[in-house]
Automatic annotation (TrEMBL):
Positions with a binding annotation for Zn(2+): 59, 92, 95
Lineage: Bacteria, Thermotogati, Synergistota, Synergistia, Synergistales
Occurrences of domain CMP/dCMP-type deaminase (ranges): 7-132
Its EC number(s): 3.5.4.5
Organism expressing this protein natively: Thermanaerovibrio acidaminovorans (strain ATCC 49978 / DSM 6589 / Su883) (Selenomonas acidaminovorans)
UniProt-recorded name of the protein: Cytidine deaminase
A Pfam short name: dCMP_cyt_deam_1
CDD domains, sorted: cytidine_deaminase (cd01283)
Domain of life: Bacteria
Segments crossing the lipid bilayer: none
Length: 135
């Protein structure tokens, strides 16, 4: 696990806001952005992409993971998630599972109670599913 500085986390937090501005969220008006930092120091942005067939909507966190995988990076160490200001916005259950797949120790930043919360992925999804033998 690489050590992350407060400056890096602040930068990631700001990049998530930039990503939020790209959201395709005309149906709900609920725009979300995500910025994913990998251990090779590359950052991948994601935003929610809604669809008129609502069930096909993609969350910001998962779109950032898809960008990371498509670009050939593989070890995320932190993700910042930004929804509308003054609204609690933690990753949904599906995104928690997807983040868990790529690094249970990933630091997850999101807004809650007017604060920026920083927790490990495994804290967000206790007893999360993993298709592998226990160490
Ligand atoms: Zn989600």
């Amino acid at each position: 696990m690489i050590n992350l500085t407060e400056e890096e986390l602040d930068r990631l937090w700001e990049l998530a806001l930039k990503a939020r501005g790209r959201a395709y969220s005309g149906y709900s008006g609920f725009s979300v952005g995500a910025a994913l930092l990998c251990d090779d120091r590359k950052v991948f942005l994601g935003c929610n992409v809604e669809n008129s067939s609502y069930g096909l909507t993609q969350c910001a966190e998962r779109s950032a993971i898809c960008s990371m995988v498509a670009a050939g990076s593989s070890k995320p160490v932190a993700i910042a998630v930004r929804g509308p200001e003054d609204v609690d916005c933690s990753p949904c259950g599906a995104c928690r599972q997807v983040l868990m797949e790529h690094n249970p120790d990933m630091l997850v930043l999101f807004q809650w109670g007017g604060q920026r919360v920083e927790v490990r992925c495994r804290e967000l999804l206790p007893y999360g599913f993993e298709l592998k033998e226990r160490d």
